[in-house]
Each structure stands twice: as C-alpha cells, then as structure tokens.
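@channel sequence for tomorrow's demo:
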Amino acid sequence: MDTAIPYTVEPRRETGLYNAKVGIWLFLASEVMLFGALFSSYVLLRVGNDAWPHGLLNIPIGTFNTAVLITSSITVVMAWASLKMSQFHQARLYLAATVLCSLMFLGIKSYEYRAKFIHYEVRLTDGKVMTGHAEANGHTAFLTLAKLQKMKVDKFEFHPDATHDAAHSEPLLLETSKIEQLECYGPWHHTYFAIYFTLTGLHGLHVCGGMFVFLYLLVPGVKMWQTDPRRYTNRIEIAGLFWHFVDLVWIFLFPVLYLL
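structure tokens (generated this afternoon):
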C-alpha cells in the first residue's frame, strides 16, 4: 500500500500547483489581511490625529535597510534558479547570503530601536520643551522622572538636538527639580511610535521566522537534496515566496513610516 503524500512535487490537476504552493498562497492571503488591518489602523490613527510627528526616523539607515532586504530577495531567487540548474553548492552560497542579509537587517533595526530609547523629550516646569540625549549615573536608556528621583539624581547631563539652539551645542546640566516630564521615544510616547513599533516589530518577527527556515534548509534540511532534489527545490521556492512577501511589506512600511 502506497502511503506517500501525493502532489509534493507534481502539480494537482485542479489547481496546477503542488500542495505546498497552494498552502503558502493561502497562508499569504491571511498575512495580507493581518497587515492590511494594521495599515488601515495606521491611516485612521493618522487622519484622526492633528499633531503627527515627522522626521523622527533615520531615513538614510532605513533606505540602506531597504536595499539589504531587496538584495536578500534577489539571493533567494538565485538560490532557487541554481537548484533548478543542479548547481547545489552555488545555491548554498546564495542561501547563506540571504541569511546574512536577514541578520544585517535585524541588526540595523535593533540599532534604530535603541536610538529611540536613548532619545528623550524633556518638558521643563517653565514650559520649555527640548529633545536630545540624557545621561544619569551612566544610564542612557529608559530614564523617567520617577527613576531619577528614585536614583536620587539632583542633576543630569542632557545633550540637546542641534535644531534647538546653536548655543546649546554643548551638554547641559538639568536640575531634576525643574523637570516636569522626561520621556524617551518608546511606544508609549505617542500614537505614532505605538503603531511604528507594532508594525516594524511584527515585520521583524516575520524576518526572524524566514531566517530560521533558511537556516534549516541550509544545514539539517539539506539532506533532502540527496534523497528528493525536486522536493528540496520546491521547499526553497516556497520559503522564497514567503520572503518576497516580507520584502513587499517592508517596501510599503518604509515610505509610510519614514517618508510620509
């Protein structure tokens, strides 16, 4: 009795697709609904908010990260094409390049995240508002007025952004007693940052998931190439379709969050 799963390599007559490709298209349809809902929420939040921050993200870094992700999509296609031509070792090099690009993307994104948690908006008791970097007893991230009071910090060093005042190019010593509010640019700071961290964080999880799949196909899953090369090639194609979707989501995220 033949217990092999049918249509893992050969296409089904009804759809012209093998099982895994049918499955990935259904899965991607659900992903479109997920990100579509989040993008719609972003539009509604922005339209309903009079004061919307702009220019708070690093556009050059975001542009470079976009190029990194697009490059990774190219290397996935090259890996699949190499397997189609039975160039296995070449395909592994392209897969390794894809994993490297995904690590680079996540590393750069982590750097961007950290920059938000060490950048502050300070509101003084006299009504003056400044933005910049703060440091208290060696701490630069997650500082709050309550935390400064708990640390018994009377004064802390503040580096204002250059846009405020040319005279404030050097660090200032701010008195804690004269601070009304001190808050970094975390997701709690503004609706914009809440949706920013939600969208980019969810996208980052998808990048991690795709990277782990490629790592599996690159190391333990490579045994399938010896036993069933056509099925292994199909696995790369399916993973590539997911990766292209992740890339496409970022191509929408970048202009929406960074440029508009």
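heads up for whoever presents: The longest helix spans residues 229-259.
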